[in-house]
Design goal:
4% strand; Four Helix Bundle (Hemerythrin (Met), subunit A); DNA-binding transcription factor activity; 10 helices; mainly alpha; transcription; two-stranded antiparallel ribbon; 2 domains; Arc Repressor Mutant, subunit A; GntR_C; 217 residues; Tscrpt_reg_HTH_GntR; GntR family transcriptional regulator; 2 strands
């Protein structure tokens, strides 16, 4: 991993730490190795600790008085509560995107969709989940509502480590792909109401929630 330039804001340090938490390099409940990360990123303790404050606000880490920080555990209750909010955020994003999506954004989302289908057909779940994540995020951006996008990003950061890494059953995987086909059709038709309803149902799926809860505390 490349070292971070000295003039980079602590936000980039926070992003790097988010990534290694989402990738499972730092497991829930483990201490954040400040000295090691400072050496790895090529930064001093000051931007690192500012980054940890940001991550604590986002729910990624817990600050320990005079003892640094540790990676926060994602509880079943937190996961379920977060998804209840995200269902409605993505549904609203879909409604807005139906009216506001640009041709360029639509083309990009379609390209991601075809990539996702290719990974599904080849059985490459890791790449499928990555494309899936990018599609959901692109649809939110297509809402062109900056407040919604910021709130969504914050919540999505908290659950990304399980939402887009969970093993999916063949039955759920097939239904999820069907949902995505319907999403693309609704977006092409600029039917925001239909897209919003599909997104709400997609995130409310009990199979998905049950699978993700198995990965929480």
């Amino acid at each position: 991993m490349d070292k971070i330039k000295l003039n980079t804001l602590h936000g980039e340090v926070a992003e790097r730490i988010r990534d290694i938490i989402n990738q499972g390099v730092l497991a829930p409940g483990t201490r954040v190795p400040e000295k090691q990360l400072c050496e790895q990123f090529g930064v001093s303790r000051t931007p690192l600790r500012e980054a940890l404050k940001v991550l604590a606000f986002e729910g990624f880490v817990e600050l320990l008085p005079n003892r640094g920080a540790r990676v926060a555990k994602l509880t079943k209750a937190t996961l379920r509560n977060t998804f209840e909010v995200m269902q409605n955020l993505e549904a609203l994003a879909g409604e807005l995107a139906g009216a506001r999506v640009t041709e360029e954004e639509l083309t990009n989302i379609e390209a991601l969709h075809y990539q996702m289908l290719s990974h599904y057909k080849s059985g490459n779940m890791q790449e499928y989940l990555l494309a899936n994540q990018q599609i959901h995020e692109a649809m939110v951006v297509a809402s062109q509502n900056d407040v919604l996008i910021d709130v969504y990003k914050n919540l999505n950061h908290r659950v990304r480590r399980v939402r887009f890494t969970a093993e999916l059953s063949n039955d759920y995987w097939s239904r999820a792909v069907g949902d995505h086909e319907a999403m693309i059709e609704a977006l092409r038709a600029r039917d925001g109401q239909a897209l919003g309803a599909i997104l709400r149902r997609h995130l409310r799926d009990k199979v998905e929630i049950s699978a993700l809860e198995d990965m929480a505390e």
